[in-house]
Amino acid sequence: MKKRILIIDDEVKIARMFVRRLTKAGYDTHVSNSGSEGLKLAYELQADLILLDIHMPDMDGYEVIRTLRSNGYRGLVSACSASVSVRDSNMTLEAGCDYFISKPIDLTFEETISDLLSR
Predict the structure, then answer these.
(1) How many C-beta atoms lie closer than 10 Å to residue 84's C-beta?
(2) C-alpha dihedral sign at 119, 29, 12, 39
(3) CB under 8 Å to 8, separation ≥6 — which residues?
(4) How far apart are CA 11 and CA 55, in angstroms?
(5) CB neighbours of residue 58 within 10 Å
(6) Residues 6 or more apart in contact with residue 50 via CB below 8 angstroms
(7) I want to staple 77 with a disulfide (CB 3.0 to 4.6 A). Which of 40, 50, 55, 105 is the partner?
(8) pLDDT per position in the chain (119 positions), as tens?
(9) What is the DSSP string of 84-113?
(10) Tally of CB atoms within 10 A around 88
(11) Distances in Å between the alpha carbon of 109 and those of 40, 52, 90?
(12) For residue 35, which phi and psi values (nearest 5 degrees)?
């Protein structure tokens, strides 16, 4: 059975690129372009991995991950952000994310995803 990945990112072009690359790599992908919608989908889909943008207008990634964790969500969540300072990546981990992937993604993106899902 294909691993299910939920992409929560308000930038449509980035979400499409994630979908294209992850679908080609054999994953079942789902997309939400807002934090609040992504939160609902996270509970419905019970994805194997959530790729969570941090900077979104309606509900940022910090609020999404804190809400998920406070409601008992135990699934794997990776923050995805262009804010790559040590402070920012540490903040995502402190908020409840399991991992941090910097944008723009590189050629090892699919390998990183595979590694995360095999843990």
Answers:
(1) 12
(2) negative
(3) 31, 32, 34, 35, 38, 41, 42, 50, 51, 52, 53, 56, 61, 64
(4) 10
(5) 12
(6) 5, 6, 7, 8, 38, 42, 75, 76, 77, 78
(7) 50
(8) 899 999 999 999 999 999 999 999 999 999 999 999 999 999 999 999 999 999 999 999 999 999 999 999 999 999 999 887 788 888 999 999 999 999 999 999 999 999 999 98
(9) --HHHHHHHHHHT-SEEEESSP-TTHHHHH
(10) 16
(11) 26, 15, 20
(12) -65, -45
Give, as one character, the DSSP assignment of residue 1. -
Return the CATH number of the domain spanning residue range 4-117: 3.40.50.2300
Do the Cβ atoms of 31 and 7 come closer than 8 Å?
Answer: yes
Alpha helices, DSSP H, located in 1-119: 12-24, 35-45, 61-70, 86-95, 109-117
pLDDT value, residue 109: 97
Q: What are phi and psi of 112, to 5 degrees?
A: -60, -45
